[in-house]
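Please supply some protein, with fold tokens.
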Amino acid sequence: NVLLEEYLLCLLLQSPTIKQILEVISKEELTKIVVAVENPALKKLIVSFYDWIEKLKNEDPQTPAFIKTQSSELIPLADKAYLFELGETVKDNKLFKRELMQTKHDLTYLSLRRRMQKLSTKIREVEDESVLEPLNKEFNDLKSQLKELDRIPIK
């Protein structure tokens, strides 16, 4: 899990083009994905980098400039992700896009599973029937989203 979350940050910070990130991951999808990110520093970097590139999408934002804007406790984590060796992944646009899509898919899956686990615990603890119905509906919605995600091929 942690490796997958860190890998997402590596991909984001080392993306050959900002356009690719915005094409593959929408703001709504990112919001769902970061639910799965347990490390608060990692979550903050992922969200703030996405917000930063979204704001500067018509310019040519460079990752080192983003890293310099971060607090002293986040800079080492951002530097590590930026310098992590991704090899051919960042040199080949098609491969990069596929890796980003696969990572998004895996983190979305993880996020849905975690939300379902939390909801399942809530459902078991509920005593009031009127509260149970909306929780069951939400659980079934998440289950449907999970099934739908399984049907989506990664191109």
